[in-house]
Amino acid sequence: MSQMKSVKRYIGCALLTLVAVATQAQVTVEARIDSASIFIGEQVGMTVEVASDAGQAVEFPHYDSLQQILPGLEVLTSTEPDTDYLNDSKRMVLTKRYIVTSFDSALYYIPPMQVKVGDSTYKSNNLALKVVTYEIDTMAIDSIFPFKAEMRPAFSWDDWWPVIWLTIILVLLAALLIYIIVRLVTNKPIIRRIRLRQHIAPHKVAMQKIAQIKEEKLMQSEDSKEYYTQLTDTLRQYISDRFGFNAMEMTSTEIIERLQAESDEEALRELRELFQTADLVKFAKYTTLINENDRNLVTAVDYINQTKIEEEVKPQPAEIVVEEKRSKLTKAVLIGSIAVSAIATIVVVVLLVRRLYYLFI
Question: Where are the beta strands (DSSP E) in the chain?
Answer without folding.
Answer: 28-33, 37-39, 43-53, 58-59, 67-70, 73-78, 82-86, 91-101, 106-110, 114-117, 120-123, 127-132, 190-195, 319-324
